[in-house]
Amino acid sequence: MKTWSNIKQQISGHKPSRRQKFFFLALIPVYFILAGLFFQSPESILEGLGTIIVEPDFLITDYFLIGGIGAAFFNAGTLTLMSILIIYLLGMDMDGHTITSCCLMFGFSLFGKNLFNIWAILSGVFLYAKYHKTSLRRYIYIGLYGTSLSPIITQVMQIPGLPVLLRLLSCIAVGILIGFVLPPLATHVHYAHKGYSLYNVGFASGIIATVIVSLFKSFGIETASRLIWSSGKNEVFACILCLLFGGMILLGLLAGGRKELANYWSLLKESGLGIDFLKEYGGPATVINMGVNGLFATLFVVAIHGDLNGPTIGGIFTIVGFSTTGKHIRNICPIMLGVYLASFTKAWNITDPSPMLALLFSTTLAPIAGEFGVIAGLIAGYLHSSVALNVGIVYGGMNLYNNGFAGGIVAIFMTPVIQSILDRRAKARGGISL
Questions:
Q1: CA-angle at 40, arms to 76 and 318, nearest 5°
Q2: This model's pTM is above 0.85
Q3: Taking Cα atoms as reference points, which of 350, 366, 368 lies closest to residue 358?
């Protein structure tokens, strides 16, 4: 007991430096890289990485099947470490978006982003910053989020009938164009949904993907539908994930003590709209929130007999990432429950691949539940389940943040309607118009 008390006192009394914060964040991808070695040998991992890079990776492409579990974890872990290093070398302090962007990089590198296809887009964002004579630090998070369009780069590289050099140059040109137009578009579309969809860049990316894929089709370049979805590893993945998320909760409690439970309770009262939990409530409470949400999402998937695989783990890590910038268990539960209840009334099963992803990624609408209540959250989840399963056809799965595009549509549809109802009620009570 004395040893445990000493450990707890040392952790709780220590304020981590900037370098230590980035080191702790880097432990997440390192954890999965090491876990990957239990599934594949280093030689097999390298071979699997090569397959991941050359294969088409538009929705839905599970890297666990394409290159192997070890290769998928190595791909995701390495890209996440690179993202952390870029942010660190830019001299930026850690905030909620640091963790969110890196968790998204990890999650989507299990089913769409790889060591080849993200760099042209990031280069476009870099050139945009140079063009406007400002620091890349202003746009780096938009750039990392914007790699959701990386399947377009892979697709351009596989256009038949073109020399390899011309395809490579086309990849670079298309990626730079995407990265260059993304920052202004992402800023503009935020005004449409007013932050009620957390995946703002996903909404902007859906618009860009629609334009580019439409151009492709005009020149006769078509993409076939794709569904590569692994199953049968729930027990081992549940253990890996629960060990990580349980460790986060324990670390948060040790670092902050009982007062962090009070901080976490206060955090749960937030709507999730335009907030950075890391800045407002500190690291320990935020880490507890990440762990709780990760455990909840993992156990929810297992409880409904869904599959834990590359795409769904990506969805879980999206929830975990946005647990620093808006999501908590009180505002994601109604949204997810709305999607789950929709499965009893619609022509699909909740354990089908697309509905499973809609279940996890629908939590982009968490601020609606947090701001307007449980009923609004249930309705938002119910509507999202239909929109998410149908909008992808316009860009052929080329936007990995399909639910970000769908969530933006639902938020734009619901928010003014809800606010008009609240406005009418306020007037009826003699209150001030909202």
A1: 25
A2: yes
A3: 350
